[in-house]
Each structure stands twice: as C-alpha cells, then as structure tokens.
C-alpha cells in the first residue's frame, strides 16, 4: 500500500491535503474522471482535481444542495462549482487555499454529515 500512496502523491499534487485521512481504516482513493476521488466512512467526501485550469484545479466537495449555505458559512472560501452545481469547490487559486483545505479535512475527519455523498450503485449498460 505504501508504494501505491507514493505513486498517488507523485501523480496528484493535492495529495498532501488528504494525508490526515490516510490513517483512517475506511479511507479509499480512486481515480475519477481525470481526478482523484477520496472516500471515507463509505462516502465520497473529496475530489482532488489537478487539471491545471479552472474549474478543475482545486478541491471538489461532494454534498447536497441543501447543505451549501451552511457549509459556505463555515468554510468561507467554498464556492458552488460552476459545472457540477450540486457540489462545492475550493479553487487552488484562492489565497487561503492551504488553510481552507486543512479546515475541510478536519470537518471530514469529524464525520461532518453535510460533507460527502453515498456512491451510486453501478448500473449495467445495455439490454
């Protein structure tokens, strides 16, 4: 597993953000649409997006729309993702990106019920 983590860190510049989550036994990390999906407690809680341009360069926070207002009140640098409007986004270009990212991870570790979505069952295509 350590080799996988080293490889992931090389390929994903935001890997440092999730370091505090790595000790949690339920933590899983999987590639997702050119980004890295991070799962904790069975929920998708964070997507590390390092595609080099907005709005795909920062942290995507999977959540439900009903939680946007309270999460944005608690984490002032979050914005609604301009394409995935159901999720929030912390752009790397934000001047407080590092502190904001750490605060988000603290909330995730505390199992904030507003952060994260249950993964959907994969459906079979075709007939």
What would the keywords be for this entry?
127 residues; alpha+beta; Aspartate Aminotransferase, domain 1; six-stranded antiparallel β-sheet
Task: Provide structural commentary.
It is a single chain. The protein is of the alpha+beta class and 127 residues long. The chain has one domain (18-109): Aspartate Aminotransferase, domain 1 (Alpha-Beta Complex). It has three helices and six strands; from the N terminus they run H-E-E-E-E-H-E-E-H. A six-stranded antiparallel β-sheet has the order 1-2-3-4-6-5, with helices on one face. The mean pLDDT is 89.
Give a summary of the structure in a few sentences.
This protein has 127 residues and is α+β, with helices and mostly antiparallel strands. It is 24% helix and 24% strand. It has a single domain, classed as Alpha-Beta Complex (Aspartate Aminotransferase, domain 1).
Topology of this protein?
Blueprint: H1 2-11, E1 28-32, E2 35-40, E3 43-50, E4 57-61, H2 68-74, E5 79-80, E6 88-91, H3 97-109
Antiparallel strand pairs: 1-2, 2-3, 3-4, 4-6, 5-6
CATH class equals: Alpha Beta
Mean pLDDT: 89
Global outline: globular
CATH architecture: Alpha-Beta Complex
CATH topology: Aspartate Aminotransferase, domain 1
């Amino acid at each position: 597993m350590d080799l996988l983590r080293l490889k992931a860190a090389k390929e994903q510049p935001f890997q440092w953000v999730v370091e505090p989550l790595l000790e949690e036994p339920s933590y899983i990390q999987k590639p997702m649409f050119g980004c890295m999906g991070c799962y904790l407690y069975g929920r998708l809680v964070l997507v590390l997006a390092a595609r080099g341009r907005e709005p795909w360069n920062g942290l995507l926070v999977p959540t439900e729309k009903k939680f946007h207002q309270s999460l944005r009140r608690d984490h002032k640098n979050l914005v609604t993702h301009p394409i995935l409007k159901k999720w929030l986004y912390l752009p790397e270009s934000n001047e407080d990106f590092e502190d904001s990212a750490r605060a988000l991870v603290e909330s995730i570790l505390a199992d904030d019920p507003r952060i994260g979505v249950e993964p959907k069952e994969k459906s079979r295509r075709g007939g």
